[in-house]
Amino acid sequence: MVKLTGYKKIKTAVFISGNGSNLKSLIKFSKTRKSPITINLIITNNPKAKGLKLSKINKIKKKSFNFKKKNEIENQMLSVLKKHEIKMICLAGFMKILSRNFITKFSGKILNIHPSLLPKYKGLNTHQRVLSNKEKYSGCTVHFVNSKLDSGKIILQKKVKITKNETKNSLAKKILKQEHKLYPRAILKVFSL
Ligand code: GAR
């Protein structure tokens, strides 16, 4: 598990692909006294990701990588992470799959948030699949990342009830609100393990 050394906070990179609302909640959390992490770098595969605007506002460095040549890019990412002394990675709406090689380099130090009650509904289009299967509940999960998609050890989950007239969008919104609370709680849990 991740251990804190002295009082030093752990330099963390957040990987995003889109809106970055989870990034925003993680930045807010990182500025609290109880946070074991600081956010020192934002990485994206999408130079147009809305969440990148949080970089300037919060004075956090950002880097965009074109994932077309994944192996090359991952090696470049690893040197950027090293340069910034990053010790932990939080995937937050990052829509690319990292290779086994990359993951091993940060073994046990990469977390992800997924909008379902894993192990159910791994992958994409989660909310639509949940509704089509007439589930009564859905939710979100924070887990460690291993080389299998959405399959690493679960850290925390939050369940939400699906209402009668639930739509894909209303469910996504409801779950996202819970994600913003769950991710910081999961980070605290990781450091208390
Ligand atoms: C979140 O719901 C997150 O769980 C999901 O993308 C959304 C990103 O929102 N992630 C995945 O589906 C990963 N497989 P955000 O950019 O506003 O944080």
Structural write-up:
This protein has 193 residues and is of the alpha/beta class. It has a single domain, classed as Rossmann fold (3-Layer(aba) Sandwich). The protein has six helices and seven strands. A seven-stranded mixed beta sheet has the order 3-2-1-4-5-6-7, covered by helices on one side. Glycinamide ribonucleotide (GAR) binds next to helix 1, strand 5 and helix 6. Glycinamide ribonucleotide binds next to helix 1, strand 5 and helix 6.
Taking the sheet with the most strands, its summary is:
7 strands, mixed
CATH fold annotation: Rossmann fold
Give the termini distance in whole angstroms.
7 Å
Mean pLDDT: 95
Rg over alpha carbons: 16 Å
CATH homology superfamily name: Formyl transferase, N-terminal domain
Residue runs with pLDDT of under 50 for 5 or more positions: none
| Distinct ligands | glycinamide ribonucleotide
The multimeric state of the shown protein is single chain
Percent helix, as a range, is 25-40%
Count of domains: 1
Element order, helices and strands?
Answer: EHEHEHEHEHEEH
Spatial arrangement of strands, main beta sheet: 3-2-1-4-5-6-7
Structural class label: alpha/beta
Number of strands: 7
Helix count? Answer: 6
CATH architecture: 3-Layer(aba) Sandwich
Dominant shape: globular
Describe the protein's topology:
Blueprint (H helix, E strand, L loop, with lengths): L9 E7 L4 H10 L6 E8 L8 H6 L2 E4 L5 H14 L4 E4 L8 H6 L4 E5 L11 H7 L4 E8 L9 E8 L6 H25 L1
Parallel strand pairs: 1-2, 1-4, 2-3, 4-5
Antiparallel strand pairs: 5-6, 6-7
Helix pairs in contact: 1-6
The structure holds glycinamide ribonucleotide.
